[in-house]
Structures are given as C-alpha cells and as structure tokens.
Write a structure and sequence with these properties.
By secondary structure, this protein is α/β, with parallel strands linked by helices. It is 20% helix and 20% strand. The protein has 16 helices and 28 strands. The strands form seven sheets. An eight-stranded parallel barrel has the order 11-12-15-16-17-18-19-20. It starts with 14 loop residues before the first strand and ends with a strand.
Length: 697
C-alpha cells in the first residue's frame, strides 16, 4: 500500500464505505482527541499504515483514502483522557473494532493485553496498560455489500398467519447428516433444512444472535464457548463462525433461499448491552471509542449501570448511539433483506436516562416513525433485571411480545397443578389482561412452550429438576422453577408406559399452543423430540447437548406437529386478531366465545372456582360477513381434558352444519370423523378439536 494519502472525506455514512475509487471512513466519538485509522496488509498481521482521520464534523471523525478496495483489513485507535473516575477509558494502545464494520475476520484471542488496565494491579481498572492489543484482535473488513437479489421479495406474511420457529444457526444444522456446510448460513440455506420447514408449515425462521459476538473469557478458560451469542461486538457484521467461505453474501444467499420458499427470516438482536462487560472487561470497541457516550454509567461514572446482568447497558438515550442502533436495523432490512427482529431484554431499550421504563422512550418512538422498520415484524422480550423490569403487555404497537405467562400457565395446567383452568382459558384466548389495550391485536402475544432459554419440550416431560452440570457452575445457573414433570422417571427411560405418557403430554401441550389465539412459536427440535439431557441453560454447549439430534427424530411427533399447524392454517378463527370475550356479535346477535362444561351446559361461576376442575371446553365462532371469514359461518369446538375419561356432549352446531372430530391427541393418527349430538366417550389427558362439515356432504 505505497503512497497512501488521506483526504477529508465526509461525515456520512458512518463506517467504511467503498465508492468505486476509494473508501470513506467515518467514526463517532464525542470525547476523543484523536481517532486513527489502522490499515493492515493482506496477511492481517502487519499494521502497514496509521492515518489520523483529518476532519471532524461535530462528533464524527472522518477521512477518505483513495485507491482502497473491498477486502481491505483495518481497525481503529482512539486517543483521549484515561480518567475512569470521569467515565473516560481511552487507551491508544488498544486496537478497536469499528462499530459499523460489515465483517470481522475472526474472534478475538484472549490475552491480558486486551484490557485497558493492568491486570492484577491494585484497584486495577484505574491503572493503565501500554501493551498493544492488535495481535489478539480480529480485523474489520471493508465490504461492498451489493448482492444480486434477482426477483427476491419478502413474503410479508400477515402476523395472524405467522408460525415462528426459533433456531440456532449451528444447532439446527450441525447434526443433520444431509446438510452441506453444517453449522453455517449456507447450511441453513440447504434443501434439507428448507424442506423440513416447509413440511412443518413454518412461516418465519427466528435465528438466535447471528451478529458478531465474543466468546467470554471465563468460558474459554473452561474449554467452553459462548454458544447462544448474547455478547454482541459488531451490530452490522455476521458472526465469522457462521460464514463457511468468509463472505457476507452467504447470509444474503440464505435469506434469498428462505424467501423463495415462502419463509421469513427474523433476527434475535442484542442492543441492550455489548460484550465488553463492566469496568473489569476488555477494551475492544465502544469502551475505547467513547465509554461515556456508549454506556449508561452510575452516579460514580467509574462504574456501569447493569440492568442487563452482563456488566453494562448500552446508552440508547444518546442520539448517536440510538442512531447506530437504527442504522444497524435498517442495514439488516435494506441490505440483508431480513423480515423482522426479536429484541433481547427489550425493556432495557425503553429506559429513560434516570432508569424508568417508558413505552414512549426514544427507541420506541424512533422505530415507530421509521418507514423501513415499520414494514417488518418487531418482537420484544419484555423484561430485564433492572428496577421495574418486567413489562409484559407494556410495549407499544406494533410490537409483539414473548409471553412467559403463557409458557408457565400451560405447563402448570398439564402438570396437573390445582386451579389452572381459568389460567388456561385466559392464555388460550390471547392473554387479554396483558394485551387487550391500546388497539393491540390478540396476535401481540407470542405464545411459546419452550425457547432456547430453558428446557426443551421433551425435557419438560422428562425432568423434574435442571441438570446443568456440564456448564461448570455447580448446577447453580439456569431457572430452578420449570413447571416440569418427569412422569415418574428422571431423565431417559425405556419404560413403555413412561414413554407413552410423555408422548401424550407433549402432544397435549403442542396442541394447546397451536389452538390458542396469539402468535405461536416453536423451538427447533421440539417437533423431533429433541432433548438437552435436562440442561435448561445450554448457552455454552456447542456440542451434542445444544445441537438438534436429527438421528433420533420422532417421526410420529413430527407428523402430528405438521398436522396441527395445517389445522391452524385452515381455520381463520384460530388466527383472528380480535380478542374474544363472549361478547354479542353485531352480525347475528350471538356470542363469539362459549365456555362449556363437558355436559354441554355453559360454565357457571361455581364451575370456574372449583379447585378440582381439570377440563375446559370452548366453542369459538365467526359469523358469515365478518372480515375474517366472509363466506360462511365458522365454528371450532375445543376440549382440553387433564383428568379422567368422561362423557362429552358437543354443542349444537350452526344450522346446516355438523361437527367433525378432526384432532384427538390420544389418537394422533385419527382420521377425521363426523360426530352427533349424543354423548361421546373421550379419553383422559387429551386435547380434541372439532370443526364443521356441511350436513348434506
């Protein structure tokens, strides 16, 4: 790279931008006194040039280097005060990742030189370390993200039609014998994966964090890694471990393949904190560029506010930090074509400067007015560990929210806990107490039985307690209350009675999920009977514990899952957005929801308060002429029986129609059959779903 010169360039856009003749670099730092661009040779080891960014517009430092091309390796250094007591931690000896870097070459290699302070010194974080960290750091890569998208069109499924499948890039693909490039985006894009999702009827693939993240030092020292990825370092860069050939086009190819199959791609994103940790963490990017701007600091600015449990909290109240988040989101939509986001610890993003949650916080207002982001699906994890951090139902539209009350309520009902029928009714009808306000639809509730964080569905019915010994934390990590039931044997069993009971319980729980109002989400592998051996916190298990076991797939349960999703897709009444409150309909004067006893009579207050009650019957109706179903009357009759076998009297069907028993979890291979008004004997511990058939068919 001879005869390099740096020109003034421009302050926008931020990051490294190739224009065909050279590269413009622009970096935000409010408190730096100097920002330096470091250019590396092709081997990635030689720091060939240091060029101070020559211009500053406001708090954006910038410069333009003619002749640079995509593929150029670079990093940053920032000079300024090292005054932790004032919130400043500049250290020019530390190579820094550009917050807007589009690709990183690798993961960092842990070494004490990554720390801005001298490890082991008294009051260590107040000391100053002069070792150069470059040899241990990844390199940023100048990218031209242009991609030949052809006729790619986002599916844009209505949220009412959405079935989400939460998966880990590597966990879903690593154990599949027929997937090429296993463990990568190209593996996700393979025919076996796409065909599996289509067979199930999945409309949206929600990926655990795929933005560049670090492996925590304490994990590496134990021979483990950060498997889940909730320690982001690069909000614009895909994680290097998922790139089979080191090209960001691999992610774009995966998205294009999913879109062609009618499947949306949703990213789990972590904008509440970064991987730099607290004051004892490394100096890798944000801390070294402008600690006081990027992070929320305590009244004593030496220390960090920790509403996330990770050591730091990103300061989205700062306009340039909020801009970075918004630029990142738009980049993944406009350049990478993703279809939505699930926001980790989203309550943190809604905190005002003094720490209180506000549904009108700057982050929410910025997203809700953005013409790009209002087109995509937005899902909040509605809590953090800060004060008042549990905010289920408190987010503004159009946000959807993960509903852990649904998870716990359904688990407790099927476990046999007392007084759970009213809870089941509330959750099955869309959790109106939490979500029926501010014009929010019933689809605002993302209903799930399991997620990456916790037991798999198989483990919910196989373990009474967590078994996280492999994490090396003495089984102290992870949730202790899982509302699970091992059905008589802890862990794996070859007892036919135990296996059948577990299979029945799984069918009952999954049927409940797919027959509930709201937006259903499945955990990858649950449809196959996947187990994590009782580990309910597999965040560091990049091995057979954390990977989906395709070889042991339960084909019968897979078929049952696909059948449930198809039944949901075929019946608009299960996918409607309006809440059902047993209100009289304007169209025909009848209620839209009937709560019934097994004898066909309506539930009474005494029935609802009966602590022994363990069966719930519900009839849902849509009248002809309503927006959801203009052609004809539709009704669904559902039965959730967690007690003994009993006699069931179906309600009167609409005139000209008759009931058809379509699903019975006690008989997963049931061929749909017409039933009459006479009492019918049904099995204990089962879910039934009836739909309508014309009486003259």
């Amino acid at each position: 790279m001879p005869n390099l010169r740096i020109l003034a360039g421009r302050a926008d856009p931020l990051g490294a931008t190739f224009d065909g003749e050279g590269v413009n670099f622009a970096v935000f730092s409010q408190h730096a006194t100097r920002v330096t661009l470091c250019l590396f040779g092709a081997d990635g080891r030689t720091e060939a040039h240091r060029l101070d960014l020559p211009e500053r517009d406001g708090d954006v430092w910038h410069g333009y280097v003619p002749g640079l091309r995509p593929g150029q390796l670079y990093g940053l250094r920032a000079d300024g005060p090292y005054a932790p007591a004032e919130g400043h931690r500049f250290n020019y000896h530390k190579l820094l990742i550009d917050p807007y870097a589009k690709r990183l070459t690798r993961h960092l290699a842990w070494h004490d030189a990554l720390m801005g302070y001298t490890v082991g010194a008294p009051e260590a974080d107040l000391s100053f370390d002069k070792r150069d960290s470059a040899r241990h750091m990844p390199r940023c890569v100048v990218e031209d993200p242009a991609f030949s998208w052809g006729t790619d069109q986002p599916p844009r499924h209505d949220i009412a039609d959405t079935v989400i499948y939460e998966a880990h890039v590597k966990g879903l693909t690593e154990g599949h014998p027929d997937v090429p490039h296993r463990g990568t985006f190209l593996g996700l894009a393979s025919d076996p994966v796409i065909e599996h999702l289509q067979r199930l009827g999945i409309t949206a693939l929600e990926l655990l964090p795929a933005q560049a993240f670090l492996n925590d030092r304490f994990l590496v020292e134990k021979g483990l890694v950060n498997y889940w990825g909730y320690q982001t370092l690069g909000f614009f860069a895909p994680d290097p471990r998922y790139l089979a050939k080191g090209q960001i086009a691999e992610f774009q190819h995966m998205v294009a393949r999913m879109h062609a199959a009618g499947i949306e791609v949703i990213m789990d994103v972590v904008y509440n904190h970064t991987g730099e940790g607290n004051e004892m963490g490394p100096t890798l990017s944000f801390r070294g560029l402008d600690n006081r701007s990027y992070y929320r600091l305590q009244e004593d600015p030496r220390y960090y506010i920790n509403d996330t449990g990770t050591g730091n909290t990103l300061n989205v109240n700062h306009p340039m930090v909020l801009r970075m988040v918004m630029d990142s989101l738009r980049y993944w939509v406009e350049v990478m074509h993703v279809d939505g986001f699930r926001f980790d610890l989203c309550a943190t993003l809604g905190r005002r400067a003094r720490g209180g949650f506000d549904r009108s916080a700057s982050f929410f207002d910025a997203i809700r007015q953005d013409p790009v982001l209002t087109r995509v699906k937005l899902i909040a994890e509605p809590w953090d560990i800060g004060p008042g951090g549990y905010q289920l139902g408190g987010f503004p539209p159009p946000f959807l929210e993960w509903n852990d009350k649904y998870r716990d309520g359904i688990r407790r009902f099927w476990r046999g806990d007392a007084r759970q029928v009213p809870e089941l009714a509330d959750r099955m009808a869309g959790s109106a107490v939490q979500f029926d306000h501010s014009g929010r639809p019933a689809t605002s509730s993302v209903n799930f039985l399991t997620a990456h964080d916790g037991f798999t569905l198989m483990d919910v019915v196989s373990y009474d307690t967590k078994h996280n010994e492999a994490n090396g934390e003495g089984n102290r990590d992870g949730h202790s209350e899982n509302f699970s039931d091992n059905m008589g044997v802890e862990g794996a069993s070859d007892d036919p009675a135990v296996l059948e009971a577990r299979a029945r319980r799984r069918r009952n729980m999954l049927a409940t999920l797919l027959l509930s109002q709201g937006t259903p989400m499945l955990l990858a592998g649950d449809e196959l009977g996947n187990s994590q051996q009782g580990n309910n916190n597999a965040y560091c298990q990049d091995n057979a514990i954390g990977w989906v076991d395709w070889d042991a797939a339960d084909q019968g349960f897979l078929d049952f899952t696909a059948r449930l999703i198809a039944f949901r897709r075929a019946h608009p009444i299960l996918r409607q957005k309006r809440f059902l409150h047993s209100r009289t309909r304007l169209v025909d004067g009848l209620p839209d929801l009937f709560w019934l006893r097994p004898d066909g009579e309506e539930m009474t207050p005494a029935d609802w308060s009966n602590p022994e009650l363990c069966v719930l019957c519900a009839e849902l109706r849509i009248a002809a002429g309503t927006p959801e179903y203009a052609q004809r009357e539709e009704a669904i009759f559902l039965v959730f029986n967690n007690g003994a076998a009993l006699d069931l009297v179906p309600p009167d069907p609409p005139t000209g129609w008759r009931w058809r028993l379509h699903l019975d979890s006690s008989r997963p291979g049931l061929v749909p059959q017409v039933v009459g008004r006479a009492p019918m004997r049904i099995d204990g511990h089962c879910v039934l779903a009836f739909d309508l058939e014309r009486a003259d068919d």
